[in-house]
Specification:
Layout: H1 14-22, H2 31-44, H3 49-54, H4 56-62, H5 68-71, H6 76-83, H7 92-112, H8 115-120, E1 128-129, H9 139-150, H10 158-167, E2 171-172
Parallel strand pairs: 1-2
Helix pairs in contact: 2-7, 2-10, 9-10
């Protein structure tokens, strides 16, 4: 007997199943992964998550293992190189956004200690357990989005931020019949 998963995870893609089973909705406090996921969620804009997930390892290689200090220093030559990299989404605005995000993140790290302390303060350190309906943005994702934009982050609209909140476990949106709904710490 196989375990029931969220409907969106019913796919033959092992990367997708691993992501659903081991990452999505699990509270994350790792700075590197928080920065990575913020940028990957932005890269997803207009595309499917599976497209980005399939390119995740290429992104890690192309963006110096998500080292914000290195990314913040990218110049036009590096951007041109990234635009030729078929392993990532070759969208100039999204590449520039990642560089802007690295610079904004470095400032945020000085001001608040980093994404972990900044983000989790919005929910008093505890994930929100959704009632099971399909949600794409909330007042909270609006609030975080607006503040991140003020801080210089790009591709952080409310819908992207809500997906990010789900991805890093600030929100547990596993379906009621999903075996992982109760597994994710709440």
């Amino acid at each position: 007997m196989s375990l029931q998963r969220c409907g969106w995870a019913n796919t033959a893609n092992p990367l997708y199943l691993h992501y659903h089973d081991h990452e999505w909705g699990v509270p994350c406090h790792d700075e590197l992964r928080l920065f990575e996921m913020l940028n990957l969620e932005g890269a997803q804009a207009g595309l499917s998550w599976e497209t980005v997930l399939n390119k995740r390892e290429n992104y890690r290689l192309a963006f110096d293992a998500w080292d914000a200090e290195k990314i913040a220093l990218y110049d036009e030559a590096k951007i041109a190189n990234l635009m030729q990299n078929a392993g990532i989404i070759r969208n100039r605005l999204k590449i520039h956004a990642t560089i802007s995000n690295a610079k904004a993140y470095l400032k945020l790290r000085v001001e608040t200690g980093g994404l972990d302390s900044y983000l989790w303060a919005y929910v008093d350190g505890k994930p929100i357990l959704n009632k099971g309906e399909r949600i794409v943005m909330t007042d909270l994702s609006d609030q975080i989005s607006k503040d991140l934009k003020k801080r210089g982050f790009k591709f952080v609209g409310s819908t992207i931020i809500y997906a990010y909140m789900q991805a890093i476990g600030m929100v547990n949106d596993h379906a009621h019949d999903c075996a992982w709904r109760q597994v994710s710490p709440v």
